[in-house]
TrEMBL record:
<protein>
    <submittedName>
        <fullName>Uncharacterized protein</fullName>
    </submittedName>
</protein>
Length: 105
């Protein structure tokens, strides 16, 4: 059952990521979208024990996409690639993920 919820969360996050990219008129790759959706879903699964808490965390993750997208856009000239996403995650001081109680590993 947890796997089903994880797929639903990933899909919702992927949609939110694309929607935010469209809103900011940014170029975005499928790989980058999948990467962020999977990354967020994995963090949510690690930090929350039940599906209700995970659902709330996924909603917070969706809202958190705006500052993430803005920072990526500024750093990469509005072209968000998979490499840009990975380098952004590698700099934990840049962003705190509000759906967890920690920064990325």
């Amino acid at each position: 059952m947890s796997d089903v919820f994880s797929k639903m969360r990933r899909g919702r996050l992927q949609y939110a990521f694309k929607r935010e990219a469209d809103r900011q008129a940014m170029t975005i790759t499928e790989d980058a979208t999948s990467y962020w959706a999977t990354f967020a879903a994995q963090h949510i699964d690690q930090h929350f024990d039940n599906d209700e808490e995970r659902g709330i965390a996924a909603e917070k993750a969706e809202r958190a996409l705006n500052p993430i997208m803005s920072a990526l856009a500024k750093a990469n000239g509005n072209d968000v690639s998979l490499a840009a996403c990975k380098s952004f995650v590698a700099a934990p001081s840049v962003v705190v993920f509000p759906w967890t109680k920690a920064t990325p590993d």
